[in-house]
Amino acid sequence: MPQQRPFSLALLLLVGLGLAGCASSPPPIARGDDGRFQAIPAQGPLPAEDNHGAIFQAASAATLFEDFKARRVGDILTVRLAERTDARKSANTATSKDSSLELTDPVLAGRPVTAGGVPILNNQLDMSRSFDGEGDAAQSNQLEGSITVTVSEVLPNGNLVIQGEKWVKINQGQEYIRLRGIVRPVDIGPDNTVLSTQVADAQLAYGGTGVVAQSNSPGWLTRFFNSPLWPF
Fold first, then answer.
1. Quick one: which of 12, 16, 157, 223 has the most CB atoms within 10 Å?
2. Would you kindly state where each structural domain of the chain is located, as residue ranges?
3. What are the distances in angstroms from CA 38 to CA 30, 149, 151, 206?
C-alpha cells in the first residue's frame, strides 16, 4: 500500500487539473444564443385590407416623397464594415540606488573598545540595488465587409439602436459577425447603408466555430497553467 500512495496522489492531481481546465473552457457559441444580437421583427398595426374596386390600394401604395431608409423597429439597415486599428506602446524604466554607511571604532577613556584585542564597534555597510525594465507591445486589426441588421429600438431623440448577426458556413466551420450599436438617421445614406465607424457604442464581434477555430485554441491543460489559479 505505501508504494501505491504516490501513484494515487498523481492521479488525483491529474483529475483536479482536468476539472479545473474543463471549468475554464469557454462555452460554445451558437447562432442566436445571445439576445443582444438577434433580429427584431417589425412592430406595427396590421396592414389594411385591399379595397377591391378602388384605384388606391393601401397594401401596395407608395408615396412619391416617402423615405425608404430605416427608421422604425424591425426595419433593415446595412452596415459597411471599415474597421482598422493600429496601436503601439513602448515603455523603458531604469532605476539605481547606492548606499554606504561606516561606523568607526569609538574611543572611550583614550582606548578603543575591543574584545580579545579585536575592535567590536567598528562597522561598515554597503548596499547597492538597480532595476531595469523594458516593454513593447503592438497590435493591428482590420475588418472589412458588410452586415445587414435590424432596428431594435427607436430612442426618444430619434437615434436607432441596431443589432444583428451574420453566419457563413465554410467547409468544416462557421464564421460569424455580430454587431450592435446606435446610429443617427442623418448618417444613413440614400442606399440605406451606414459606415461602421459612424455606429456609436458599437459592439462588434468576429469569430468562428468548428475544426479551424478549435485548432487555434489551446488545450485545457495549457489554459490551466496560464490561468491565475497556477501559483508559479
1. 223
2. 29-42+61-83+144-232, 92-136
3. 12, 9, 11, 15
Backbone angles phi, psi at 217, to 5 degrees: -105, 135
Q: Residue 47 contacts by C-beta under 8 Å, 6 or more apart in sequence?
A: 58, 59
Between CA 222 and CA 12 the distance in angstroms is 18
Report angle CA 60, 65, 67 to the nearest 5 degrees.
80
- In sequence order, the 6+-apart residues with CB closer than 8 A to the CB of 63 are none
CA angle 130, 133, 139 (to 5 degrees): 175
End-to-end Cα spacing for the chain:
32
Q: Which residues pair with 207 in a beta bridge?
A: 176
CA 217/CA 229 separation, integer angstroms: 19
109 with 223: CB under 8 angstroms? Answer: no
Lowest mean pLDDT across 48-52, 97-101, 123-127, 166-170: 48-52
Please report, as a single letter, which amino acid is at residue 185.
P
Contacts with 86 (C-beta within 8 Å, 6 or more apart), sequence order: 139, 140
DSSP 37: G
Within the chain, how many helices (H) and strands (E) appear? Answer: 3, 10
pTM of the predicted model over 0.85: no
SS3 assignment, position 193: strand
